[in-house]
Specification:
With 631 residues, the chain is mainly beta. Helix content is 12%, strand content 41%. It has five helices and 44 strands. The strands form ten sheets. A seven-stranded antiparallel β-sheet has the order 11-13-17-15-14-18-19, with no helix packed on it. Strands 12, 20, 21, 24, 25, 26 and 27 form a seven-stranded mixed β-sheet that branches. It has a six-stranded mixed β-sheet with strand order 40-39-41-44-42-43, sandwiched between helices.
Amino acid sequence: MFLVSVVTGCAVARTGTAPVAGGAAPSPAAPGRDSFHITVVYPAVTDIIQSHDSVFLLGSVRGGTGGPVHLGINGQSVPVLPNGAWIAWLPLPDDTVAHFLIAATGGGPDSSRFVYTARIAPQFRPPPGRTVWIDTTSFTPAGTLALPLEEGIPLTVQATPGATVRLRLPWGSSVPLVPDTLAPELPGAVRAFVIDSEPRRRVPVAGRYVGWLPAAALCVDGRTACATLVVTVGADTAMARWPLDVSVVDRTFPTVVVLDDDTAHTGTTDSLTPGRAVPHGTYNWFFPTGTVAVESARWNDQVRLQLSRATVAWVSEADVVRLPPGTPPPGGVVSSVRLTSGPRSVTLRVPLPARLPYQITERERSLTVRLYGGASDINWMQYGEGGGAAGTDPLVTRMSYAQPAADEVTITLELARHLWGYRARFDGRDLLLEVRRPPVIDREHPLRGRTVVLDPGHPPLGAKGPTGLWEPVATLAVALKAKTLLERAGAVVFLTRTDSMPIELYPRTHFAELHDADVLVSIHANALPDGVNPFTNSGTSVYYFQPRSTRLARELDRALVTEFRVRDLGIGRGDYALVRPTWMPAALTEGLFVMLPEQEAVLASEDGQWRYARGVVSGIENFLRERAREP
């Protein structure tokens, strides 16, 4: 099994003019000497490189008297575009500091030469001459934990291979840690959308130990009654305090909490608290403000909710408001349900005993609501008012419910058409699930009359190219051109921003819903994180989150690859805010890599921006045309 992590995404590259050795600024250019001005965009002098084997440098060369420029970094020749842009892929020293000798020469006397210094994130190394050691940065878990007594804590640590390892507890007993025979092999992860330029060595990890610590009060004041790791090889021993404080959760009187992601009452949040299967993991649930649940554990800034006997979710401590002691846990009976028809949607009303946690799962032609902490007493499922065909909404063909567990209820709506969108909210204690009617699409002119919201990605943040092209500038130019093309085809188009003022994520998605958008597309330019070779990992990619948006992402990807003729990185499900809205299909495009000189030049040009815009418009049009063909 491999750990998969997405590596594409808009990296932030800050501009830093390259200093000379010792940190001093470059001297003004004298005639015939230092007549080139070299700028390093990434890494900036304030950045800390997170990779340890290779890194990319990018920037530009300006000045000189004309003619081709020859650039070398640490003796490696680096191509320079006519506009001065360059990018290099260079090895890193086994150190925390890297020095790059950068030299530029022209056809005549023009030249520049200096040393650029960058910092590298430190990594643990066994102390020289020590036979026994402990990597104190590898303690997992660390921090503050709260668990019920019947649970336990898996432990992992890196220490001397072949040692005897035990965790000494303050009351005299010890917990053994054993070698992890199933430890992953280096490099330990497969990164999405990445092709390795060289075969990776696969070496088993040595010195990784695992153990199991039964939950008990431990080091609750952070100083006394703490656990100590003891590592022994022969007569040599190393010891270190395990940085873990454990308290016990008393489940006799459960702690009831209510969720509110806007505890500061700013009014600028989406009123949803994301739930995760693991602390700080990917989003799996979206709990509206007011959801009530039972707290069952804590780990630093994460709180575990016991949704049902079999299901837990982790949420941010900042979104949790604890109710007074003695508050009964949520639960009770889920009553009969009713559909109500409207001109643009059909709404399911589910009477609840409290604002129970729930999860909505969509398929092509169905929606399922899973309610946690409830038991079904759904005697009636009414399809509409008046009874008979007149009272039955044609969008919902069938409703059903199930009790898959004693404290979980599911309600499923089967649809006559492929799902277009939905939204859910609490009305008092009732849950309202509103299912959107698919728009009526003109088969010959699919864009005519459709409402499209375009989101020019960033600011805040945003990547920068070698010559300093800022991603938000390029994406706004593309969005304005796409708006022109869409309006010519008869669409109604709105942009989430029309200038460079920063806009946060939630106002963008809220804007699309307020305008009842049929489609939302967020336009971006890509960059890579440290340690990924930009020469073998670039191209076009498109992201979606909701299953119904897969078709939109695929059509956008095909259209953009056709326009740009670059490598197709494909589509991927990405946990991005701009593709999470449920009311309409949404996708996020990463058309080109702004960090690559050739692709930055395309994004900076009028022709390249029109090509990007045509790709976006073609993708939306093809998606709508495909949906128009459905019965």
